[in-house]
Amino acid sequence: MLKTIRYAAFAVIAALAVVWGVVWWRGGGIAQFGLDNLGISVPGGVSVGGPFTLVDTTGATVTDATFRGRWMLVYFGYTYCPDVCPTELQTVVAALDTIGPLAERIVPVFITIDPERDTPAALAEYVKLFDDRLVGLTGTKDQVAAAARAYRVYYARANATSTTAYLMDHSSFIYLIGPDGAFRALFRQGMSATDLADALKARLAAGG
Ligand code: NI
Questions:
Q1: DSSP readout, 108-136?
Q2: What pLDDT is attached to residue 46?
């Protein structure tokens, strides 16, 4: 079972590496490519995002359809994450603060990949540390796994010292989903809030 998961995880990483490679090759490097300001477009035929069924911080079931009509900025992580997740969530919030009223059209969503510890109550406490707009979603292990699979998110438990003290390895991208529920763009880890804000302005201006 563990082996299967490892192979599956490897396949996901390999697929993402191919996507990155194609984007890189076509653009002559992300940095010099105009896409830097618009996010990374995924080549045709590669599907990212899609339907999910999860649980919000009140314990209510929500699906991707719950957010239809609004843009979503989706990030997968976990509340015990020591560094990357808090940084990326701060970037998301700072970018939304930068774009003014346009931000009202975007729902920032944090989906945990650690549902065992990230209960609705734990997530509620966590998201409000960042911003009242931030929507925290968890679910059963299967629900979370299905959502992560749809978004091609890799995650796995790392260096467990006990059943409650452990870190999670996880891929770290910010996903922009259009009001129709379709994937629009992928933003890399470490992008500045200013660049993300510029990208959001451009993407929203380009329309739904
Ligand atoms: Ni993290």
A1: EEEEES-TTT--HHHHHHHHHHH-TTPEE
A2: 76
Instruction: Please give the pLDDT value at position 26.
Output: 42
- 207 CA from centroid of ligand 1 (Å): 31
Residue 74 alpha carbon to ligand 1 centre in Å: 13
Going from the Cα of 188 to the center of ligand 1, the distance in angstroms, rounded, reads: 13
Q: Which two tokens stand for residue 188?
A: 């890399």
Side-chain half-sphere CA neighbours of 102 within 13 A: 20
Residues 6+ apart with CB under 8 A from 17: none
Please report the domains of the chain, with CATH numbers, ordered by start residue.
Answer: 2-206 (3.40.30.10)
Nearest in space to 173 (alpha carbons), one of 49, 7, 31:
49
CA of 78 to the centre of ligand 1 (A): 6
Is 95 within 8 Å of 197 (Cβ atoms)? yes
Specify the pLDDT at position 10.
55
The residue with tokens 């992008």 is: 191
- Is residue 191 a contact partner of residue 200, using CB atoms and an 8 Å limit? no
Strands 53-55 and 61-63: antiparallel
- Ligand 1 center to 82 CA (angstroms): 7
| Spans of the chain, pLDDT less than 50 | 1, 21-36
Residue 174: strand pairing partners: 75, 187
| Mean pLDDT computed over every residue of the chain | 86
**pLDDT reported for residue 35:** 47
pLDDT value of residue 162: 75
pTM: 0.81
